[in-house]
Amino acid sequence: MPRVDVVQTAPAPARAAVRTVELAESTERTPASLRPWLTELGRIPLVRELSEPFAHIPHTATTIVLRAEAGGRREALVLGPRTRATYSVAKAPASCVRLRLAPGAANPMLGVAASELTDRVVRLADLPGPAGELADALGELPHEEILAFLEDELPQRLSENPTQRAHRGLLTEAAAALAEPSGRSIPAVAADLAVSERQLRNLFSAGIGLSPKHFARIGRVRQILAYAGDTPWSRIAADNGYYDQSHLTADFRTLMGVPPAKFFRGHLPAPTPCQAPA
User: Fold this and answer.
1) Quick one: pLDDT at residue 75?
2) So what's the pLDDT on residue 15?
3) How many other β-carbons are positioned within 10 Å of the β-carbon of residue 99?
């Protein structure tokens, strides 16, 4: 268990009304037949208010985004894992469905390693995997029909050899272990799974698009964002595997662009336009 130095007991500041994609999104688990490849479906209703920026916080999953603008334009995109937060203003009112890929599912679903998608936005139709072949149909379907369509189409198009299946299983176990708030070390996780640290790094790079260390850092920062404003910073640091409050602040600032106190007060970096597909 990491040593925790209690620096101060001041509570975190009250949360400001920072708009994040996660706050606008409702989520549901995917059906069991799709769960080896897709863990979650998120729905964001039509967003009409364009004056306030959205905070897109770091995320470890590769995500298929089916976006529908109020004017009728539709597109099917893939967002790779996001290593740092971005702050953007939407160009047009739009709604979307977000399909999050399971660890190790990028290659069988999209035909490329997850590392090729990190911090990128690409058109789904430009990717060579089975999901890319379905891009046009997915882009036109009513949102409520997407899961049923994928249940019919995806399983018969996907194929894995035993090695790929084993790697996906290892990744799922490792990701769950590193997501624990107690801060399990990477050597300990590798030892538990009977693989070397180098093998674990290679698995994460190909199957998730991040190093195990960065995967764990994103998980901790996302946990911090879930805290209410009346919890002392020292307690938040201890609960999430940080050595002390200074370690928490440095990690948060690196991934979010501002220290946690400023973020929770709504003092955010200047927004930029949404990233265009590569």
Assistant:
1) 94
2) 56
3) 26
Residue 102 lies in a domain: yes
Q: Classify each residue of 10-31 as buried b or exposed e, where b means 16 or more C-beta atoms within 10 Å of its C-beta.
A: ebbbeeeebbebbeebeeeebe
Residues recorded for the chain = 278
User: What averages of pLDDT result for each successive group of 10 residues across the chain (278 residues)?
Assistant: 44 65 88 95 82 87 93 93 91 89 96 97 97 95 93 92 92 93 85 96 97 95 81 87 91 95 89 77
The single residue listed with the structure tokens 């004056």 is: 51
Residue 189 covered by a domain: no
Give me the number of domains the chain comprises: 1
- Beta strands 38-47; 26-29: pairing state: antiparallel
In terms of Cα–Cα distance, which of 21, 33, 208, 209 is closest to 97? 21
Domain residue limits at 73: 21-157
Q: Are 103 and 175 in contact (CB under 8 A)?
A: yes
Q: Give the other-Cβ count within 10 Å of 58's Cβ.
A: 22
Q: Is residue 137 part of a domain?
A: yes
CA dist 193 and 135 (Å) reads: 36
In a domain, 135, yes or no: yes
Alpha-carbon dihedral sign for residues 119, 123, 125, 131: positive
Identity (one letter) of the amino acid at 39?
T
Return the structure tokens found at 150: 């994928």
